[in-house]
Design brief:
The chain is α+β, with helices and mostly antiparallel strands. The protein is built from 27 helices and 26 strands. The strands form five sheets. Strands 18-19-21-22-23-24-25-26 form an eight-stranded mixed barrel, surrounded by four helices.
Amino acid sequence: MSEPSTATAALPRAYQDDALLRLIADSVPALMAYYELPRLQCRFANQGYAAYNGHSTQSILGLTVEQAIGRRAWEAIRPHVDRCMRGERVKYTREQTLPSGEIRMIEVNLIPHFEGQAGPVGAFVLINDITERWRAESMVRQSEERMRKFSEATDEAIVFHRDGIIIDGNEALTRLTGYPLHEVLGLSIFSFIHPEYRSIALEYTRSGSEHPYEVAITHKDGHNIPVEVVGKTMPQLHGDYRIVVARDISVRKKVEEREAFLALHDALTELPNRRHLMEQLERQIAQAQQANRHLAVLFIDLDHFKTVNDSLGHHAGDQLLCEVAHRFTRCVRSADIVARLGGDEFVIVLTDIHHADEAALVADKLLQAMQSVFPLEHVPVTVSPSIGISLFPEDGTRGDVLLRCADAAMYHAKESGRGNRQFFQPGMDGSAMQVLQQERQLREAIATGAFVLHYQPQVSLHDGSLQALEALVRWQHPERGLVGPDDFIGFAESRGLITPIGRWVMLEACRQLKAWQDQGLALVPVSVNLSALEFRQRDMATEVAAVLRQTGLEPRFLEVELTETVLMQDAEQVLLTLQALRTLGVGVSIDDFGTGYSSLNYLKRYPLNKLKIDRSFVTDIPDNADDVAIVTAIVQMGHSLQLRTVAEGVETPAQQELLRQLGCDMVQGFLVSRPLDAQQTLEWLSRPQSAVTSDAPGRGQ
């Protein structure tokens, strides 16, 4: 330290001390003063204190507190000063309004000064401006209050924890876990996470991650709940804490599981579908070859099943198919395979037999099981199966060959009087000739225009008003009469004949709608189904534009319906086509939504207008809780993405009422109207709009 200057050294020591004290007092950011009792006269103030109260360090000396700070401020602090005069150290905070109008927050310390054993002789005043800290803490409090209000308003569980220890939570947390809040406070948040996911959650928290992830939590009653979790670290003066938001995704998981299941199973009977059957059949053949075992394939077709649909409706037909599936399943071993190919065709694979007689015994058992009456719609119904049997390795060593042979034997059973079983024999395989004949008939139908369109209304659940008409193609078959699309569209695709049929359907649907509109009717869109094959092979946007020009129909009155499968193939090309259709003004609907096995990302990526809820989910509502959950999820998903939802196959008022409560926009099905030909549709359209009511039981497609 340097030596003091000659001038300073020459000053009296007391003066040097006073100058140093003054220098120090004026240099600190705090406001300082000393008041002498009993009159509370100021004997010292640093520059900050004096200036804060509008004085200089000289002019403030000798002033009382009231004179120094003003009457209003004196009245506000007087109780604190009284406590200090009694010898108590006092600390308090208060707002201070500056002449500029700015509000500051100050922290005041009053420290009594004692000399000897008597009472205080003075008081030190130390004032700190804590405005910035006060504002920061106020913002934190406001933020926490907003978070509290939000957490109580949301259905998502919110939990606050510090270092994994729960410090707070909302009401939704108690509903999700089953524990009242007081039982979880102070516990580790990780104790509620299923052990399988605990290490993931620990690492997520340790790393301070903030992206969503999925875990499972254990409810108080012991069952596990899948949840989507996202956490966020919140800074706080006394230590950071984490906010965790948990969303119950049970419904979404059920939908995903249902989608995965339906990719391999028939939606109606829940039996393996053709794809799953062929996978299992090939696997069983490989195992049989290795073990030198035999197996049998039974191809089963129900005799006169169409009569049941035509007389009692599709709902009764579906009931029959489900009961047949149950009876077939009860007749075979658990290791055997029972599958539904579609329509009224079933296949059973007997996975381990020693000789053909065993297959014959099972077939006879199936025939006997079908002899008892099926009570459908309070009407006793009997139905017989025709069964064809092929054997491995005698009739083939590949799954498709065995299936074709069993199919040929089944047709032979039908030709032999129906209701019996037949083993495959060389020469029975006349399927190639049948294919050629069907192809010839279908080509003739295209050439002669042997197709007609039926129309089924879609109506609003809000007011019953007509919203759209779906065009459904029928083939006027020369031998079988009016044939639905399920019986020939797939075949037309496989033989390369779908393009001319699809073109005719779109042109005729647009032409007919324009004709009705010219009569002042049907000012709603007509929807046309497009298969995946059509969508891939045709320049749809160009073709649609040409049809609209040719018919004069405004683009907003045309919708195309696609299945989920279409959107999963060649995504970029699909996107370009859909964008082109959107540019034209044509709507796009997703048909049979929920039955595909695909990512849901396309819903937000592609320009879509409607989701059509598949009838398989509607059939058993409101009695089936799983289907209700799935329909609920689809409706909510559609609304969140600004898509309108249409429920297919609505047949009962109870179904309609539930769909209305769930917020579904439209319904389609026999409750509104069965599919009608052009003349019947014209008559339906000519009725008063209020007359849109149920006119027949059964399903509508």
